[in-house]
Structure formats: structure tokens, C-alpha cells
Amino acid sequence: MTMLPGNYLGRKGGSGVAQWIINKMPFHDVYIEPFCGCAVVASLKKMAMVDNVLIDKNIDLIRFLKTHYSSYDNFTVLNVDCFSFLDTFICDYVGQGKKVLVYLDPPYLPEVRSDYVRSQYEHELTMLQHRQLLSLMRDRLLQFPKNLYFIISGYKSDLYMSMLQDWFYFEFQTMSRGGVRIESLWTSFNPDEYIKHQYDYVGSTFTERQRIKRKCDRWISKFQKLSFDEQMVIYESLKNTLNI
Which GO terms describe its molecular function (predicted)? Predict the structure, then answer.
């Protein structure tokens, strides 16, 4: 059966899930998303300037994405096995001195999926492949300690908690086909120590993001009422304070 992008399994279209993930992303020149599915996260985030690499083995989804992003020069959409190409992209771009972010949302482990029997992907991962994926990330971080960042989604499991025990761990309550679940996120870096790739989704909830947006709107309104010289004094002060 052909899976349409709108109802693809595992899509990060749940309320606030994609925004929560994007808010953890540090600034990057290259964005790589293996297991991209219908690319909800990629569609909501700010594009990376150098390249945005979307990889999936589902040919129908890739055809859809190629059509959707055909007008962009900095999008690479591939219908390949990520195990064959992910390492190449990482080594090439980090080797060029680019800041590379890899976001992975692989099919979750069967043991943590309450609806595994009813809902399975066209292309699942074996336990061995999950181990290979986690090992690849750890190995590349040792090889490239700078300019390489990993984020991976999943449900909490013994395998992930043990192999990523020195990573940063976050949880978010969401609604899945099997009911309310706790979405887990592991990052190879501390998100609080890096300039974010974008600040559109700062705030843990929609209500919090709206509160921050209203505050920004009020401050901008006050700023626009000042004289040009006063605006420049504030601008220079902010530059010096933030070291930008």
C-alpha cells in the first residue's frame, strides 16, 4: 500500500513535537536528515545555507519531496539506504569545515512500540542496525569533536540509554497512534551552550511561545518609537553585551 505524506507513520506532526526538536538545534551550515519520512521537521525549520540532505528508502515519499523542493538549489533528496551515504556526507562536509547537524528519526525499537504489530514501516531497522547507527554517531564524534552535532528521536530504551549515556536527554509528552507517549530526544551537545539555528520556537509549549512573541512585539513597538540615535545606542549596547 502506498503511504501518503500526510499519514506516514512516525511523522512529527503532533502538537509541538517538531517545534520542540527544532528549538534544540544549534546553528549549522549543513542539515542532514536520514529516515526523513515526510520531512515535517525539515519543512518547519529554517533552511541550512549550504545543503539540506533528506534521505529515505520510501520511493513514494522521495518523489513527493523531490517535487516539493525542486526549486531549491540547496536541497539534496535521495532514495537510498542511509547507512551507505550518511557517513560520506558527514565526512565530506565536516572535512570542509562546515558545521553539520544530523537529525535522525529512525523506526523506533519494536520493544518500545505498543502498536508494533498493527503499525509497521515499509523499512524497519533490526536491533543490529540500531546498534550500528548509534556506534556510527559515537565514532564520528570522536573523529570530529568540533562542528558535528547529532540529535536522535526515539522512545526510552535500555539500548539507547546505555549507548548514549553521556549524551543530553530530554522528554516531551505527545499523542501517538497507541495513545499518549513520552517522546525522547538525545543530543550529542548541550543545547543551552550554543547559539540556536533559529529562535522561532523558543518556549516549551505553544502558550509559552505566544507569550514570548507578544513580549517581543511590545519591545519592538517601543523601540520603533525612539529616535534614530536612541535606537543606535541600544543597538550598539546589545551588540557589546551579546558579543555579536
Answer: S-adenosyl-L-methionine binding; sequence-specific DNA binding; site-specific DNA-methyltransferase (adenine-specific) activity
Q: What is the pLDDT of residues 88-115, one digit of tens each?
A: 999 999 999 999 999 999 988 766 665 6
Strand order in the sheet with 100-104: 75-78, 51-55, 30-33, 100-104, 148-154, 179-187, 168-176
Report the CATH fold assignment for 5-193.
Rossmann fold (3.40.50)
Domain coordinates of the chain in residue numbers?
5-193, 206-242
